[in-house]
Amino acid sequence: MTERGRKALLLAPAGIWLLVMLALPLLVVFVFSFGERGAAGGYVPAFTLEQYANLPARWTAFKNTLILAPLGTIAALVIAYPLAYFLAVRCSPKWRTSLLILVIVPFWTSILIRSYAWIFILGGRGLPALLESIGIDDIRLINTPFAVLVGIVYGYLPLMVFPIFVSLDKLDKRLLEASADLGSTPWRTFRQVTLPLSVPGIATGCMLVFILLMGEFLIPAILGGGKVFFVGNALVDLFLQSRNWAYGSAVAMTLVVVMLVTVSIYMKFISRLGGQRQDVSLM
Amino acid sequence: MSFDMSVTMQTIAELRGVTKTFGNVVAAKDLNLSIGKGEFLSFLGPSGCGKTTALRMLAGFEKPTEGQVLLDGEVVNDLDAHHRPVNMVFQHYALFPHLSVFDNIAYGLRQQRPHVDKQTIATKVEQALETVRLGGFGPRRIWEMSGGQQQRVALARAIVNEPKLLLLDEPMAALDRKLRKEMQFELQNLQRQLGITFVLVTHDQEEALSMSDRICVMEGGSIVQVGSPRELYDMPRSRYVAGFVGTSNFFDATVTDSAADQITVRLASGQKVHGTPEIPIDAGQEVCVSIRPEQITLTRALPTAEIALPVTIQNRIFLGEHTEYLARNEALGDFHVLVPRQAELNEGTFNAGEQAFVSWGEGALLILEN
């Protein structure tokens, strides 16, 4: 077999998978988005831009997603970085493995169950009751954007911790000694050596979390109580409840475009931040 | 060039009774050493002998468990690495991969407070690049540089700060043999040119012998002997030093008589030899005698020397300027003999199986502690 043939053979399974499971459905959604809702729901072929003209009706969902997804990503980064730094740089190897396992343990249970747990924590008899007992009254947490934020940060934290941990773990610790040797204080060493060299991990973590958050629907549904909903919730609603496939397709296509635009802006930004470094890998 | 500590002007760094333990492991034991200003000193020993620990204590990466580290007359035990006017060339260079060659070299200058102005930094970095013969390489990325070039960048990154001590941790371990030879000459030139005190750590005796003013030989965490390369070669204090600095033939012997300035030992072959050991040795003690391969004369006729031993030639290796023979004596065992080209031309080549005599001049045989 020729070299080309062998390469094609290796790529074939993934290629076929992408074609059948991604490209074709995307094409179907694209075509549907120009159609109309049938009388009994579903899809009737047509060519109209009516669905796209109706998009402003779902503006709130887009707004919530576009605010809470970046906010959640940043919050996860702020919490995950010190944790990853501790695990990779400061923690004694004896404890490292056990602590890393603790980071993964939540994944052993369904996100559904874990999010329900937060209903009790944030609900009337949970944290608000505790706050009331120390004199802080009328705090409402459940079904607020804050509850959704807490939920998504909680749910996606490990996805942020791991890439950052890996980039910090493979950081040559002698570079830190070299920096100190050249007269740099620990804080400046962090800023000038550790942080720039962990950019690939930060980039990967943010990308993973951000993309998944853009499509999130479960956590807003559970902790937002129908008040804080994402585009994902709108899609569930359109496809499964009102059975308006054409409109749902238009919303889905718009989400894909918004995601592509934000991610490519983000990639530009990161590649500039990472300089012309050879070892910047984004995913 | 020789460097005599007794007449030297100034001590720049000093270890006073320094001990370092990691858990139950004693990495360095009661080290006492003065490093003279402008000297090229090497710590020599196998891995685990404590030489790197000694260097790291000078750099400030490790704090001594006991004793004092002095820099310029001041105790610096508690001074962190980033406050010490000392720079290090790391074993694998530890260059910053995210910075250009220029920024790597400028790194130390940029940490200085008050700030050094941009123009001065640019000038100094360019100068340092010229010094290590990398002029014009400033904008390059680290990964674009070869191993030898990276080594020079690491050197430039350290010398640009004009440190009081330049510490070199096995700086040539990663270079191939030819490049290493070149770098040895260059390092030595650089050291004279800059007048900076160099402290080198190496396990390579050739490296230590060729570059250093003084060598500090270490074993098991302790300093066993300090001296110029020539002193260590000619007057090793122990079998360990003689074996580590150059190569030698060793034979067991027993002390039969010990006087104030001369002792007599008996070789396994029955001959008695006299000598003056570096340290007092009592009668009855087991010692070893050492003789360098190039100090042995190989002859066909019985020589007139005090001791001449009959040997059988076992093996011959032609080395160009020398020929190395392996010659066996019934009682003592194998002698490595290095015969210079001229002597071989006079005496003729010996073949395996041939009978010959080994002999040596007065003072060639050293009596050493086992």
From TrEMBL, chain A:
InterPro entries in UniProt: MetI-like, MetI-like_sf
Location (main, coarse): membrane
One Pfam family from the record: BPD_transp_1
Alphabetized CDD domains for the sequence: TM_PBP2
GO cellular component: plasma membrane
Keywords attached to this entry: Cell membrane, Membrane, Transmembrane, Transmembrane helix, Transport
Keyword hit for Cytoplasm: no
Gene3D superfamilies registered for this protein in UniProt: MetI-like
Compartment(s): Cell membrane
Membrane-topology descriptor: Multi-pass membrane protein
Record keyword Transmembrane helix present: yes
GO biological process, any: transmembrane transport
Domain of life of the source: Bacteria
Coiled coil feature spans: none
Domain spans labelled ABC transmembrane type-1: 62-268
Transmembrane segments: 9-34, 66-87, 99-121, 141-166, 197-225, 245-267
Stated family: Belongs to the binding-protein-dependent transport system permease family. CysTW subfamily.
PANTHER family per record: INNER MEMBRANE ABC TRANSPORTER PERMEASE PROTEIN YDCU-RELATED, INNER MEMBRANE ABC TRANSPORTER PERMEASE PROTEIN YDCU-RELATED-RELATED
The protein's name: Spermidine/putrescine transport system permease protein
Lineage: Bacteria, Pseudomonadati, Pseudomonadota, Alphaproteobacteria, Rhodobacterales
Automatic annotation (TrEMBL), chain B:
UniProt keyword annotations, A-Z: ATP-binding, Cell membrane, Membrane, Nucleotide-binding, Translocase, Transport
Top-level EC class as recorded in UniProt: translocase
E.C. code: 7.6.2.11
InterPro entries to which the protein is assigned, alphabetical: AAA+_ATPase, ABC_SmlMolc_Importer, ABC_transporter-like_ATP-bd, ABC_transporter-like_CS, Mo/tungstate-bd_C_term_dom, P-loop_NTPase, PotA-like, Transp-assoc_OB_typ2
Reactions listed under catalytic activity: ATP + H2O + polyamine-[polyamine-binding protein]Side 1 = ADP + phosphate + polyamineSide 2 + [polyamine-binding protein]Side 1
SUPFAM superfamilies documented for this protein: MOP-like, P-loop containing nucleoside triphosphate hydrolases
Every ABC transporter domain range: 13-245
Pfam families with a match to the protein in the record: ABC_tran, TOBE_2
One example GO MF annotation: ATP hydrolysis activity
GO cellular component terms attached to this protein's record: ATP-binding cassette (ABC) transporter complex
Superkingdom classification of source: Bacteria
A biological process from GO: putrescine transport
PANTHER family for the chain: SPERMIDINE/PUTRESCINE IMPORT ATP-BINDING PROTEIN POTA, SPERMIDINE_PUTRESCINE IMPORT ATP-BINDING PROTEIN POTA
Family: Belongs to the ABC transporter superfamily. Spermidine/putrescine importer (TC 3.A.1.11.1) family.
Role noted for this protein: Part of the ABC transporter complex PotABCD involved in spermidine/putrescine import. Responsible for energy coupling to the transport system.
Subunit structure: The complex is composed of two ATP-binding proteins (PotA), two transmembrane proteins (PotB and PotC) and a solute-binding protein (PotD).
NCBIfam families assigned: potA (TIGR01187)
Name the record gives this protein: Spermidine/putrescine import ATP-binding protein PotA
